[in-house]
Amino acid sequence: MSVDLSVTLSGLSRLYGGDLAALVExxxxxxxxxxxxxxxxxxxxxxxxTERYPYGRFPFPPDEPWPEPLTTLxxxxxxxxxxxxxxxxxxxxxxxxxxLAKTLATLDVLSRGRLEIAVGTGxxxxxxxxAGVPFAARGERMMDALRACRALWAxxxxxxxxxxxxxxxxxCVPRPAQPNGIPLxxxxxxxxxxxxxxxxxxxxxxxxxxxxxxxxxxxxxxxEARTSAGLPPTPRVRAAAPLxxxxxxxxxxxxxxxxxxEAGLHGITVASLALAAFARGPDxxxxxxxxxxxxxxx
Length: 298
Known about the structure:
two-stranded antiparallel sheet; 11 helices; 10 strands; globular
């Protein structure tokens, strides 16, 4: 299969109940099945106004569990050997830049270079208020943090100054195991500012929601921008696998997997499958992973 397969873990209360430690076993099974990537989502807290979600109806109640993704991926790293460990998305502005750089580099080292991070700015004001972080200018805060991470990973000692981050002549060791640093993906709509930032950081694109037309148009614009900047023209694009429904209107995994090869025609390099969309209970998690694994190996 020319398009790699990624599994996003969501709907945890329905699938895992009070046994969230079973997420590690899920990663172990996915690893054994040859699935390319496993992806954890991110919220530090959830406020009551889920109707403000900018991508349609928010699919979970406020009391849905959201394990801290980097902590969870670290536990998964110890139980796996090959699967890529990813976020979708990590809300970067909520985390201090230097702590973020150290955490990501450590996780990349412990996983022997299997980490990749999809980043975003978040959408909940309550989440920022609870963390004591300004909600305004969060895009600039995110970029300051990512640039600071790159500086700490590239130089020793490192110095960096921006509106929100400053350090001089400091060492941040260990550095990431991957020679070119930890791959970044932007989980945002591809507006002009986001496009500019992605080219600056040689980042891939991981839209949360995108129609076929938005995806095709975005890939074309990203290719053009990368070519103009002297980067390899083909971008990394992780997007939801084209969903197929059965006659009852429920997600059809076999039919969806059959469509995945078509996804490459739209520029998708990694097709994402949401576990909660296909597994209705804990007994269906392993069969889902086994079926995805067979497709990944074909």
